[in-house]
Amino acid sequence: MRADRLLSIVMLLQHRGRLNAADIAAQLEVSTRTVLRDIEALSAAGVPVYTDRGRGGGISLLPGYRTELTGLTSEEATALLASGSGRVATPAYASAMRKVAAAIPDAHRAVASTASQRILVRPEGFAFPREPELHLVTLHRAVIDALRIHVSYRNRAGAAADRILDPIGLVYAGDHWYLLAARDGNERVYRVSRIDSLEVLEESARRSAVVDLEAAFTAHWKSFRATLDQLDVTCLVDQSSWLSLTKNAIRVISDDVQRDGRHLATITFSGRNHATGVIWQCGPGVTVLQPNMIRDELAARASATARLYS
Fold first, then answer.
1. pTM above the 0.70 mark?
2. pLDDT by residue (tens digit) across 106-153?
3. ∠ Cα 127 129 130 (to 5°)
4. CA 179, CA 194: separation in Å to the nearest integer?
5. What does the alpha-carbon distance between residue 213 and residue 85 come to, in Å, rounded to a whole number?
6. Is 233 exposed, middle or buried (0-12, 13-18, 19+ CB in 10 A)?
């Protein structure tokens, strides 16, 4: 609807500042001409939007003008922005996030922007039993404030050792929080529940000003999975599920696109639980052909779900 689009333009300009018509058109998935007509409509409605022509010009709002999104605290808005980082947003989701960003007071916007880059929430990841994560709030502050930390950390074998870390970001995956941090310049992933003690140091963390947390975590995740026992699964995959499935697998061994557009592929996972979990998330978009134990596990899950809702 045009009203939603007009509001989205105002939110974009409020959050991003000056933009040209092509940038706005790309964000809203409309033509440049449509954006220019919308700008005229906003101006006629009394919204203080103006255009600077020439090189370096663009469309912007009169300084100090704000439209408010009520009922949302700055902490809630920050959390929503963080939860959306790294995801492929639908137009509706992108519109919602523009409104969230516009709702954040100017004094808190820098913190929220940092959170959206440094905190990632995703549904998949390392699969381990749930454990308490006592230091999450303190870690959050260290990540946002870019401060070094001193931790006592237990490895998989349970041996503890002291570490000085430069926190890069926090990732929620597979019902657990993970800290992406650098130690002596080498980037690693630490499970938050294995941190026994934590001290935030009064010195700046040595880290890049920009990070792609999704790409960094995915690379570490695949490296970790590669150290486990692997399992090859042959399946038919709808085009709509292909990217999600292959992104969370270790590798694609073979891929043959069928006449109906589906992929007949053999894909490597780290083991039975990994394969079942990733394929289950794709629902009917994936048909497993082999091995039978994965088919049986998926059938059992589907039956249990059907019984629950029958």
1. no
2. 555 555 556 667 777 665 544 444 455 678 878 888 888 889 999 999
3. 110
4. 11
5. 8
6. buried
